[in-house]
Amino acid sequence: MASRSRIEWTQVTWNPLTGCTKVSPGCRHCYAERFAERLRAMGLEKYRNGFKLTLHPDALHEPLRWRRPRLVFVNSMSDLFHERVPLSFIQRVFDVMRQAGQHRFQVLTKRSARLVEVAPLLDWPPNVWMGVSVETSEYVYRIEHLKRTGAAVKFLSCEPLLGPLPDLPLEGIDWVIVGGESGPGARSMQVEWVRQIRDQCLARGVAFFFKQWGGTRKGKAGRMLDGRTWDELPLHRNPNHAPAARPVVVHSPIVTSDNAAYINGFREKADLIWSLANLLRGDYKPHEYADVILPLVVLRRLDQAMAEKRSDVRAAYERYKGKLENLDPVLSKAADGSLVYNYSPFDWQTLLAAPNDLAQNLVAYLNAFSPEVQDIIEKFDFRRQVARLDAARLLYPVLKAFETVDLHPKQVSNHQMGLIFEELIRRFSEQYNETAGEHFTPREVIALMVELLLSEGADTLIQPGKIIEIYDPACGTGGMLTEAERAILERSQGLNPPPHVFLFGQEINPTAYAVAKADLLLKGADPRRLAFGNSFSEDGHRDKHFRLMLSNPPFGVEWKKVEHIIRQEHQTEGHKGRFGAGLPRISDGSLLFLQHMLAKRFEEDEVGSRIAIIFNGSPLFTGEAGSGESEIRRWIIENDWLEGIVALPEQLFYNTGIATYIWVLTNRKSRRRKGKVTLVNAVDFWAPMTPRSLGSKRRWISPEHRQRIVALYRDMEPNEHCRVFDNADFGYRRVRVERPLRLNFHASPARIQRLADQPAFKALVEDKPNRAAKAAEGKLLQEAILRALSRLPDQLSRDPAEFLTWLKDALAPLKLKEPLRKAILAALTERDERAEPVTDAQGNPEPDPELRDYENVPLKEDVRTYFEREVKPFVADAWIDESFRDERDKRVGVVGYEINLNRHFYRYTPPPHPADLAREIEKQERAIAALLQEWLR
Q1: Cα separation of 566 and 599, whole Å?
Q2: Contact by Cβ (8 Å): 87, 119
Q3: Which 3 state secondary structure label does DSSP give 475?
Q4: Contacts for 255-262 with beta carbons within 8 Å, 24 or more apart?
Q5: In 83-174, which ranges are E strands?
Q6: Residue 912: what pLDDT?
Q7: Dihedral angle sign, alpha carbons of residues 542, 545, 547, 553
Q8: What is the Cα–Cα distance from 532 to 508, expressed in whole angstroms?
Q9: 669 has a pLDDT exceeding 80
Q10: pLDDT tens digit string along 910-928?
Q11: Residue 405: other Cβ atoms inside 10 A
Q12: In this model, does residue 882 exceed pLDDT 80?
């Protein structure tokens, strides 16, 4: 059986042999030796010989029984290339690894001399990763031995790292693992040794994996290096993919986002594709057009991008079909390491050449795509559309029409392709009236978000060879991620080596996810960094942290479907989970996205993380003090994470014209921004869309406007468009103000008659089934009460002491319960401002719930000082309810936070002078009279 491994860089272990002997300093405190002796003491038959070298032929075929692809560490308890292991046994192990092509096998040895000796006698399958241990500079020679093997992936294990390795010969090496020694007698490892190796890997594009700091308590020491974990594996590390280390990269120029390019650069292609949807008219409803057109756009793009390697992939398929259970590694390798390939004999032209067989040939063509493309096809649900198109006799006309659409990467850049996707999705969304902004954000808005993100700390972040991971939890078609990558690469021109930018995202809409994944595939990026599903309930990047995050989550979308999951995490995990600060109202999950992103911030270093997110106005001020929204704002502002907010022009987005705002957050503010929040009012910084609007998008932010907005934000100079506030300026205390209950009393016949409507009085005889005796008893009590009340003085009293005495004396013989006494008092009293206050047993005035009010006292101001100035002069009998206190600081008044930009940027416009207004009215009257005369003629 497979042994699930706790080794961080693998999944399972397979030991067809056990036991070993020590050959170098790294073996001194061998964990395998300690473990083997422990297993022998436990009576395990496989370890009856302890740590003596023992072959286990019966374990050879275990990997062939594992159907699910796995990453397998071979001989974690031994060394396959030990001098006493027969060559025939090594060859048998290699034969099993070749047959189990669905897995990736990691073989590690310290005996590189034996390795290089037998390497020519082994048939190296593409799914075998071969590594050597290099614990000190004395053993660097093992790397040269490794390079002389036929392994597809070659890796180094610098574990335990016992000294510096300043000049590793990494040419031809795909992966480096570094770790400190752990367990009894563990030798220490210096941080500079680890950084030295990491920096060499980054400079040469070699995957770097930091396993642990080690020590006698390795769990406590952890595995964080410079504020993050380093979990890189060789390219195409997933067991479903080949280990080839070179992806296909479609090279295209970076396109700048000016208005002319935005409108004209992609409009022609988008219009052409949109026009093809007319072929579906009648057989498809307008909102269904996207189900056909969008996947065909992707397939057309992929088909043209695969042209150069199509014959190589087909040849590899013909050579290995029927010989390997999993052909993906060899086919990916034939595609020059790309995750995009198709092994069928068809392309667009050959499909069209046989119209009578088009449906079945197209399905065969779809089935022959690589696994990553299969995922895209499934999310589009396109096979179902093939059958429907064929039944409607539309399949050939539609594919034939698409033959006229040239989407080859050499003709259409990735950036232009993104614009085409966005425009098509916008048009299709309008047909279906989808939620505003659900799938896409205008490129110039994304560019503004990225520049705001990089307005602080860019020099620290963008450095030669630096790894920059960008995340969007609601990535739609991936526009934000690709624009952020473009901006960083533009800024890093001239750096050698350039930064390594990796894009991560998650999307719940299948179509948008399919489009985004296709885009990543064609760029040569790893599409597996894009997760499908709900970010709240199926976090695709759990425990992952990111330097840069940006998102435009859907506005005003309820989270009822995942309510139980979110509430459970909120209640059980608190601030250790994602939603500890609070939960917003069920109708709007915007602030859940922000909490989710903040949970993925880096905390352990001085660089931290930066976030830009687009909201509508609701998250700024919805919810009073103590509500979920206010508590989330409080958590953010009191932790000093909110750096600034930019108010955007209206009518910027395709499907909505509402006001929107960019929030910028960081957990590592610069010194000048600590304790401050910058607000920028950019509502007037826009230009009209020309030559025409795009849906509801009638305005756009030009590059000149964008530069001005960023300058205002960066400079923090107070003016009519920029304000800088202290964090506390957005806080307040919600104080409960009470006024005394004042009642008059009159035992008049009319008021006594009102007692019959009091629930406690009616309950004496009602709702007593099968209890006639009790009802009769209640009826007698009612009559006794009415007789007692009729004997009270028939006069109005405004003195509670007086009328309460009357009532007490009259009802004393009846010994009534308190609810009934309150019902009688309620019937016989009315509120009266001229009456004396009602007091409790201690002589304190009782509050009147109907007169209860609340005051929001600025956080910087003393509550009582505010009360004496703003309340007491107008309501002399009011007082502050001292029991109404904040749960966190226990002070009077519940703390709340809101950000009202309109109030902060309000400009008073005086009304016109009456004389000017009269002249304007007279002018309009003359104009109306002239029009009437002309009409009467």
Answers
A1: 14
A2: no
A3: coil
A4: 255/413, 255/415, 255/416, 256/703, 257/443, 257/444, 257/447, 257/703, 258/702, 258/703, 259/687, 259/689, 259/690, 259/700, 259/702, 262/419, 262/443, 262/444, 262/700
A5: 104-109, 128-133, 153-158
A6: 85
A7: positive
A8: 6
A9: yes
A10: 888 888 889 989 999 888 8
A11: 17
A12: yes
Residue whose token pair is 């009534």? 816
**Cα–Cα distance measured from residue 105 to residue 10, given in angstroms and rounded to the nearest whole number:** 9
> If you write DSSP's letter for every residue of 841-856 in order, what string do you get?
TTSPBPB-GGG-EEEE
Here the tokens at position 135 are 């614990």
> What's the number of CA atoms in the CB half-sphere (13 Å) around residue 224?
13
DSSP-assigned beta bridge partners for residue 229: none
d(CA 910, CA 123): 88
Which of 429, 449, 337, 354 has the alpha carbon at shortest distance from 395?
354
Residue 151 · residue 123 · CB < 8 Å:
no
| Distance, CA of 173 to CA of 153 (rounded, Å) | 8
- How does pLDDT run across 50-91, given as a tens digit for each residue? 889 999 999 999 999 887 888 999 999 999 999 999 999 999
Task: Give, in order, the Cα–Cα distances in Å from 846 to each of 743, 839, 841.
Answer: 11, 5, 10
pLDDT value at residue 770: 62
Query: Which structure tokens are listed for 46?
Result: 């496989």
- The predicted model scores a pTM of 0.66
10-19 pLDDT, tens per residue?
989 999 999 9
pLDDT at residue 803 tops 50? yes
Calculate mean pLDDT across residues 121-147.
Answer: 93
Residue 182 has, within 13 A of its CA and on its CB side, a CA count of 16
Q: Which residues contact 899 (CB under 8 A, 6 or more apart)?
A: 620, 621, 633, 645, 677, 679, 730
For residues 242 and 293, give the distance between their C-alpha atoms in angstroms, rounded to a whole number.
Answer: 31
> What does the block give as tokens for 180?
């400190």
Q: Indicate the residue type of 809.
A: D
- Please tell me the distance from the alpha carbon of residue 799 to that of residue 318, in angstroms, as a whole number: 104
3-state secondary structure of 351: helix
Residue type, 430: E
CB contact set of 818 (below 8 Å; sequence gap of 6+): none
Mean pLDDT of the chain: 88
Residue type for position 309: K
Q: How would you class 326 by CB atoms within 10 Å of its CB: exposed for 0-12, middle for 13-18, buried for 19 or more?
A: middle
Q: Which of 77, 93, 140, 146 is nearest to 115 (CA)?
A: 146
Rounded CA separation 547/461 (Å): 8
If pLDDT is split at 50, 70 and 90, which confidence band does 524 have? low
Neighbouring residues of 851: CB distance < 8 A, sequence distance ≥ 6? 738, 739
DSSP run (H or E) holding 301: helix 289-305
One-character DSSP codes across 87-101: HHHHHHHHHHHHH-T
879-880 and 731-738 as β-strands: parallel, antiparallel, unpaired? antiparallel
Cα(887)–Cα(892) distance, integer angstroms: 10
pLDDT of the residue at 248: 25
DSSP string for residues in 22-41: --SGGGTT-HHHHHHHHHHH
- CA nearest 547: which of 462, 474, 476? 462
DSSP β-ladder status, 500-507 and 467-472: parallel
- Neighbour tally for 903: CB within 10 Å: 9
Cα dist from 240 to 86, 96, 209, 328, whole Å: 31, 18, 20, 7
Structural contact between residues 398 and 389, judged by C-beta atoms closer than 8 angstroms: yes
Region 774-783: mean pLDDT is 89
Other CB atoms within 10 Å distance of the CB of residue 343: 23
Cross-strand pairs, 837 = 742
Render pLDDT for 726-749 as a digit per residue (tens, 0 to 9): 999 999 999 999 999 999 999 999
Contact between 615 and 555 under an 8 Å Cβ cutoff? The reply is yes
**For residue 351, is pLDDT > 90?**
yes
